[in-house]
């Protein structure tokens, strides 16, 4: 099993085990990324659209937490059509994306892809208009410089330098890119327009040397899967016990009220009966707290392990 197949399997496992969690939507988007990096564009778009559809059905609070995931997949639909060279569909998706998310960090890249698509179709005036819009979207800033690119995706570079107004002569600017792992590329940047101090270009990324899949598979082994299911089962059992105890407590409270209002028994017998019911209510309340704590502890075990596994997969694929 290669890295992509392993990653896809792990993401699908997360979706199966935790379909209503935040991780499920993130994993669904990553399955699309894996398909796209494998040039299976139709499958990639299908998963990106599933993310968008599922997002629309979430509660507002969960939507706020996952908004960035939603925005990214909406862009990725258009970008994937572009990679497929289906420029007609790419135009529609990218324009719709810019219309809905004009301040997104992906908007400038969407303009660039539209311009590139026009160039392919020899619509030079339209291409120039799209390229001139690159850099006009707000909100890119530092966050855009930290965007993670899926293996095989395109890295877009834009440099602004007021001291390098070479556009009038049509000159290009040479730059050198260097990664934290030492990879180095030399690139020529084109001016965006006559007299412009903004220069743009792009470079295609690719997967590095294959790595052993054992560490990746170990992040979600059969043992891990068994442990997850055990914790989930225990959390559910404790939650069910809480419901049962709450019913018992309400019954005990009602019984206590009934005894206190009933003319029989009287005197010390009544006080003793009421006291027993109070003790029962207190004991049930303590058991409820204990069961709630046990259920919460098991859920935290699940989410802690899942968070570690998810982060591990992301880090492994990014290396």
Commentary on this structure:
The chain has a 4-stranded antiparallel β-sheet, with no helix packed on it. It contains 12 helices and 4 strands; from the N terminus they run αααααααααββββααα. By secondary structure, it is of the alpha+beta class.
Share of residues in helices = 55-70%
> What strand order characterises the main sheet?
1-4-3-2
Q: How many helices in DSSP terms?
A: 12
Q: What is the approximate shape?
A: elongated
How many beta strands in the DSSP annotation?
A: 4
Report the uncertain regions: 140-146
SSE sequence, one letter per element: HHHHHHHHHEEEEHHH
For the record, give the distance between the C-alpha atoms at the N and C termini, rounded to a whole number.
18 Å
Briefly note the structural class of the backbone: alpha+beta
Strand content: 5-15%
Oligomeric nature of the chains = single chain
Radius of gyration: 29 Å
Q: Whole-number average pLDDT?
A: 78
Largest sheet, in brief, is: 4 strands, antiparallel
Quick rundown:
The chain has 319 residues and is an alpha+beta fold. The protein contains 12 helices and 4 strands.
Question: What labels describe this entry?
Answer:
single chain; 319 residues; alpha+beta; four-stranded antiparallel β-sheet; 12 helices; elongated
Write the layout of secondary structure elements.
Layout: H1 3-17, H2 22-37, H3 41-56, H4 60-65, H5 67-83, H6 87-100, H7 107-120, H8 124-133, H9 141-145, E1 154-160, E2 173-178, E3 184-191, E4 198-204, H10 214-218, H11 222-261, H12 267-318
Antiparallel strand pairs: 1-4, 2-3, 3-4
Helix pairs in contact: 1-2, 1-12, 2-3, 3-5, 5-6, 5-7, 6-7, 7-8, 11-12
């Amino acid at each position: 099993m290669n890295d992509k197949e392993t990653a896809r399997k792990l993401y699908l496992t997360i979706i199966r085990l935790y379909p209503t969690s935040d991780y499920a939507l993130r994993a669904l988007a990553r399955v699309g990324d894996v398909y796209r990096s494998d040039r299976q564009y139709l499958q990639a778009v299908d998963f990106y659209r599933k993310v968008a559809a599922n997002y629309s059905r979430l509660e507002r609070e969960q939507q706020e937490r996952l908004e960035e995931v939603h925005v990214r997949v909406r862009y990725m639909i258009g970008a994937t059509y572009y990679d497929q060279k289906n420029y007609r569909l790419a135009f529609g998706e990218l324009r719709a994306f810019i219309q809905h998310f004009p301040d997104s960090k992906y908007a400038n890249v969407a303009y660039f892809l539209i311009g590139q698509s026009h160039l392919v179709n020899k619509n030079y005036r339209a291409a120039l208009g799209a390229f001139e819009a690159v850099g006009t979207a707000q909100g890119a800033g530092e966050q855009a410089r930290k965007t993670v690119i899926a293996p095989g995706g395109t890295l877009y570079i834009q440099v602004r330098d007021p001291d390098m107004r070479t556009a009038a002569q049509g000159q290009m600017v040479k730059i050198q890119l260097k990664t934290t792992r030492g990879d180095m590329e030399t690139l020529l940047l084109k001016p965006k327009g006559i007299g412009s101090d903004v220069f743009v270009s792009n470079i295609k990324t690719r997967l590095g040397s294959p790595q052993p899949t054992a560490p990746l598979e170990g992040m979600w082994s059969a043992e891990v899967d068994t442990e997850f299911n055990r914790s989930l089962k225990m959390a559910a059992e404790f939650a069910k016990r809480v419901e049962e105890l709450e019913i018992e407590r309400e019954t005990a409270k009602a019984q206590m009220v009934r005894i206190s209002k009933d003319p029989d028994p009287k005197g010390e017998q009544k006080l003793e009966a009421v006291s027993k019911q109070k003790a029962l209510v207190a004991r049930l309340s303590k058991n409820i707290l204990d069961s709630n704590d046990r259920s919460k502890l098991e859920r935290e075990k699940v989410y802690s392990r899942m968070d570690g596994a998810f982060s591990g997969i992301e880090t492994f694929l990014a290396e």
